[in-house]
Amino acid sequence: QVQLVESGGGVVQPGGSLGLSCAASGRSISAYVMAWYRQAPGKQRERVAIITSNGAGYTDSVKGRFTISRDNAKNTVYLQMNSLKPEDTAAYYCNTGPYATWNWGQGTQVTVSS
Question: Rounded to an integer, what distance in angstroms lies between the CA atom of residue 75 and that of residue 65?
């Protein structure tokens, strides 16, 4: 059984930065495309970043501001978020990509507010 544990969220002012981590256990992530998703209150969960063996991709709203990376040796996926906006406020999750196939973790809350 794969377990995903997200961390690194918090409250930040607009324009600030946060770095999220997602540690996986129970299975190696090295063979998988991995992604970060987010869900804002009252909205559907959306994929914001994806990382493959060939590179990374982002949804338009975060391009140029977010960077996804991975460390297969540590079985961890990261999301560096810069120039944060209030509309980035959401619970953030990692999972396989382009579609989630593992059980969701508890997520980590990101709140962007002045």
Answer: 24
